[in-house]
Amino acid sequence: MSSSSASAPTDVVTERLVLRSWTMSEAAAVLDGARSSHWADDFPADGDRVVAGLLGRHPEWLGAYGHRLVIERDSGLVVGSIGLFRTPGEGVLEIGYGIVASRRGRGYAPEATRALADFALTAPDVHTVSAGVELPNPSSVRVLDKAGFHRWATEENVVEYRITSPHHDRR
After folding, report:
1. How far is the C-alpha of 149 from the C-alpha of 142, rounded, in Å?
2. pTM for this structure?
3. Is 40 helix (H, G, I), strand (E, B) or coil?
4. Is residue 7's pLDDT more than 80?
5. Nearest partner of 115 among 49, 17, 22, 6, judged by Cα
């Protein structure tokens, strides 16, 4: 394998989804309000627009451990986005996700979240994936529960969830 293909982000494929890195042209299309025939009718959502706007300032988010589009395998349509963020704690990545309204309730968010967390935990310097959820967002709490995350801490109105590599020493 050549070094250029070795450094290219790898798609994460699940039973029903493909998690593929954004391209700058896709981010530009989202920001310009363009429509693609490869997008669900209600993509992009507000959170997708925010991510698209930040990709230019954070080119590392286009790498293997960055942001991805969530693509329905059956239709080939983009139905949301999911991403990993570096947090201040060494070895910890934070995950965020969103599925468009027309595809909610199908289990896509937990499926994508679990798959990307499992992928992130294969990186040699990552031992934990975390997510913060506001308590008034029970849907997101259910996503993390179904994805195998565990409640770690509660601070005011936010619950932190984590999933940790089974090989990590938790001392």
Report:
1. 10
2. 0.90
3. coil
4. no
5. 17
